[in-house]
């Protein structure tokens, strides 16, 4: 979710190898985005939605302090945040002061982001798609997908019936994000969000909002907020949801009374619900290959929207009959010696709401098809 901005180990590897920016979309040598900037959802702010959820459980953890100590001692902004949580959400001040007194500042994360922020954003380079695709379209991801699908067939089929999302696309997301839980991150979510909320000025507002939602999530789900681990940006579980995405779209799919994104069934249902709520159209296509009659002058990407007639007038002909319903996107995949163009249908755009990148969405699509062929 994210993102929409939604981090897995494999995204971190891609960032290191391609020196990508922490922005949604393409950067450096491949078009890749991170999960720091999940696209804003329609409707009310996250905090407004969270406040409507009753505090059905007391806060977990024996945290008590009269003042902030530890790595964040003396942070006036954190004290103000604590005051806000007490005033708006009914938390106990001493509980939060005790909790944040044992939070740890993630200096590596701050150094990494400072370096990444200095990189210049550029268009996808030749061969960028080939390099990106190769990191995911391999036996490790596909084989793990087949095994996961066989172990969780009933939950996947139920998610497809309930939400209208084919099981292979749920599998595609879980493959890219964490290889089906093979690596969900190693940083405590509390440490990640506190560090980024109060020491990362460029996106501090965003991460303070995610920290607010994380504390509300932990209370409502009966979790000790110092326990969950995730990505270095606070994304959680098999599907790498940020806390705001958790509050909006996570579901208790196994019926045990809690939403647990580290649980396979809940992760399956939550990804399917995310797609459904972001406009997935059951039975409709995701992409259609195009044949280009000469140089392509139209802008590719997620922002420009086209009709089928406009694409055809520009010399782009569908390789097979396809639907013209809904706004269409022009997708460009950069191989080493040529570019491939495809129509991105509304379902393709729905995948990009999970991660705002055409390469990400195309990888999910190809993994989905590859895993389906093996089932």
Pick out its properties.
two-stranded antiparallel ribbon, 16 helices
Task: Describe this structure as you would to a colleague.
- The chain has 375 residues and is α+β, with helices and mostly antiparallel strands.
- Helices cover 46% and strands 9% of the residues.
- It contains 16 helices and 7 strands.
- The strands form 2 sheets. A 5-stranded antiparallel beta sheet has the order 4-6-7-3-5.
- It starts with 8 loop residues before the first helix and ends with a helix.
- The N terminus is likely disordered.
Q: Mean pLDDT, rounded to whole units?
A: 87
Report how far the terminal alpha carbons are from each other. 26 Å
Largest β-sheet summary: 5 strands, antiparallel
Helix content: 40-55%
Number of helices: 16
Short description:
The protein is 46% helix and 9% strand. The protein is α+β, with helices and mostly antiparallel strands and 375 residues long.
How are the SSEs placed, and which strands pair?
Blueprint: H1 9-18, H2 46-51, H3 76-89, H4 93-101, H5 107-117, H6 128-134, H7 139-151, H8 153-163, H9 167-178, E1 187-188, H10 189-199, H11 204-221, E2 229-230, H12 243-249, H13 264-277, E3 287-292, E4 301-306, H14 308-313, E5 316-318, E6 328-334, E7 339-344, H15 346-352, H16 358-374
Antiparallel strand pairs: 1-2, 3-5, 3-7, 4-6, 6-7
């Amino acid at each position: 979710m994210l993102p929409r901005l939604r981090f897995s180990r494999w995204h971190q590897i891609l960032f290191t190898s391609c020196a990508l920016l922490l922005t949604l979309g393409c950067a450096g040598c491949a078009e890749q985005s991170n999960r720091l900037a999940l696209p804003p959802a329609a409707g009310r702010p996250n905090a407004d939605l969270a406040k409507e959820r009753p505090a059905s459980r007391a806060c977990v953890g024996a945290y008590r302090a009269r003042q902030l100590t530890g790595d964040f001692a003396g942070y006036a902004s954190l004290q103000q945040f604590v005051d806000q949580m007490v005033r708006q959400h009914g938390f106990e001040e001493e509980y939060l002061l005790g909790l944040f007194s044992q939070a740890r500042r993630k200096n590596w994360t701050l150094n990494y982001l400072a370096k990444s922020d200095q990189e210049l954003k550029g268009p996808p380079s030749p061969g960028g798609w080939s390099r990106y695709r190769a990191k995911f379209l391999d036996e490790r991801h596909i084989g793990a997908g087949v095994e996961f699908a066989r172990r969780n067939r009933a939950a996947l089929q139920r998610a497809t019936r309930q939400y209208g999302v084919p099981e292979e696309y749920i599998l595609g997301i879980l493959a890219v994000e964490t290889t089906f839980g093979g690596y969900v991150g190693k940083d405590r979510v509390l440490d990640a969000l506190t560090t980024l909320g109060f020491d990362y000025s460029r996106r501090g507002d965003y991460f303070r909002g995610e920290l607010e939602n994380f504390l509300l999530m932990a209370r409502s789900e009966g979790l000790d907020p110092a326990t969950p681990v995730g990505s270095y940006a606070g994304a959680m579980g098999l599907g790498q949801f940020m806390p705001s995405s958790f509050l909006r779209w996570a579901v208790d799919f196994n019926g045990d009374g809690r939403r647990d994104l580290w649980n396979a069934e809940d992760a399956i249902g939550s990804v399917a619900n995310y797609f459904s709520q972001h406009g997935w159209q059951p039975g409709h296509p995701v992409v259609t290959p195009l044949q280009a009659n000469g140089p392509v002058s139209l802008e590719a990407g997620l922002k420009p929207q086209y009709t089928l007639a406009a694409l055809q007038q520009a010399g782009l002909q569908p390789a097979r009959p396809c639907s013209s319903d809904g706004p269409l996107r022009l997708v460009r995949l950069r191989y080493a010696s040529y570019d491939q163009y495809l129509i991105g249908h509304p379902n393709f755009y729905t995948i990009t709401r999970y991660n705002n990148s055409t390469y990400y969405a195309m990888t999910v699509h190809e993994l989905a098809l590859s895993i389906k062929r093996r089932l």
